[in-house]
Amino acid sequence: MRWHAMLFVLTLRESLWAAIEPRIDYLRGMADLASLAYLSRGECLLLDVARNLFTGAGAVSLDDLATVLDQQAFETVVAALRLRRGESTPARDLLEV
Fold it and tell me: Mind listing the pLDDT tens digit for each residue in 59-68?
């Protein structure tokens, strides 16, 4: 479920996905999720969330999640957390909107 949750977050914004997708090695099961200076604050936060869901490393500010992310990004993060727990319904619900 790590991959699912990570990819769910990273594919939310086309610009974030375009920056990160070339850094993912599916065959080796690796992803270079280092921060990129040119991302917006919200995209950096989404990258931090994806990194934490994938590796378990780093910290993500709950206050930033609540105050920086727009509604769609916030709901995506919540759905990704549910994906990481093994639940899939919330993610499907977001995709159907």
Answer: 999 999 999 9
**Spans of all domains in the chain:** 2-96
H runs (alpha helix) in 11-97 = 14-20, 41-55, 62-67, 71-84, 89-96
Residue 84 makes CB contacts below 8 A (sequence gap 6+) with 1, 2, 4, 5, 53
CA end-to-end distance (rounded Å), the chain: 22
Q: Exposed, middle or buried, 25 (CB in 10 Å: 0-12/13-18/19+)?
A: exposed
Tokens of 90: 């919330």
Write the pLDDT tens digit of every residue in 26-40: 999 899 988 888 899
